[in-house]
Amino acid sequence: MIIGTLKETVKPVIDYTGKFKDKRLKTRGEQIASSMIEKETAVLNQLSDNRADYVAASRFNNHDSVTLGAIIEESGERCKIAANGKHVLAIHDTSEVNYHAHKGKLSRLDNELGPVGNNKNIGFFIHPMLVLERDNGFPLGIALMLGTELGIKRRQRKGITNHCPTIQKNLTDG
Fold first, then answer.
1. What residue spans define the domains of the chain?
2. Mean pLDDT across the stretch 143-160?
């Protein structure tokens, strides 16, 4: 059964209020997220309407105040609201993000990457938890995103955590 595309079936409200230090970052982040949903891509040059949008999205992604932890936390809060009062299925898996083909372009100082797979390739592992409505399988969101322990000091400095307490609470609050 095909439910339709995300943009046809769901109008998620992205709300980064209080996640970043600057209201302009909040607004830009919400614009980027909305554009990703509308255009069904996360590739910056595909979701940007012009060069100015591309530059603004790049600056947002590279800003010191923009952290992966804040983005994951917002996703979990949105999932918690969508799942409230519903019976859900939480599907957890591990994925390998392998950058071996790009090893010549990566810095040796990037301690967020480490050995994956055969212990010779470089990349990282992610452990997302997708939440679906039990009755119809409709996706409600990503409730949890765990990462590998590579580069822990850099991850802490960037605000990346191994789990989001708000999201974890969602699974126990029903």
1. 1-66, 86-174
2. 55
